[in-house]
Write the structure tokens for this entry.
Amino acid sequence: MKKKYITLLNGEMIEYQLERRARRTVGLKVAADGLVVHAPKYILEIQLKKLIQEKSNWILNKLEKRKENHVLPIVWQDGETMSLLGMDITLYVVNDKKNKQPQFNHDSLTITSPESDNEEVIQRKVIQWYKKKALTDYSRRIELFAAKLGVDTPSLKLSNAQSSWGSCTSRGNIRLNWRLLQAPPSIINYVTCHELAHLKEMNHSAQFWAVVGRIYPDYKVAEKALKQLSHQLHRM
Ligand SMILES: [Zn+2]
């Protein structure tokens, strides 16, 4: 296999591996370590480049997806970087005989525990802190946007779902995933508005999106950003 470079139609130069084989067509695949091109033995370099370039969008999409999927899980130790409201914060772990409340300070969260080496203990404490903070944070947003929508502030609970960021029941109870607290405020606002809009429209019809748009005009951008962020948010 040979390492090669090609400039795609968007001007981005990428690396790829070329494998020449006894085959008639050119095959592309994006593997864990990047683009792999399977090409017939006698295809001209210039022809091959053109074929790859024609697939620029497909390649860029796949490479982007691969990056998103490649998220390292959090290591529950001193010095780890976590995300809070879209900002990086550092986890500090301090060993102390006494169990103290977590301390948040601008860009760090300090967990004090007699079991500072026990990652499960640290994880539990951090997540507890995130949940508590999420409830306060989301409550404020729900109140704000409910007023904007002209409805009573609904009841709010946190969810721990793996596959959804929020939900709204027919009884008007809203649940928001505590993991969202890692996301930028704009994303949390969007999910809040999305669920609130279900109080008016219990579906995803055009009318529903019109309601969302009334309280959160930039919803399309946020929806896309949330999809891209999804894997990041599942780190925790
Ligand atoms: Zn919905």
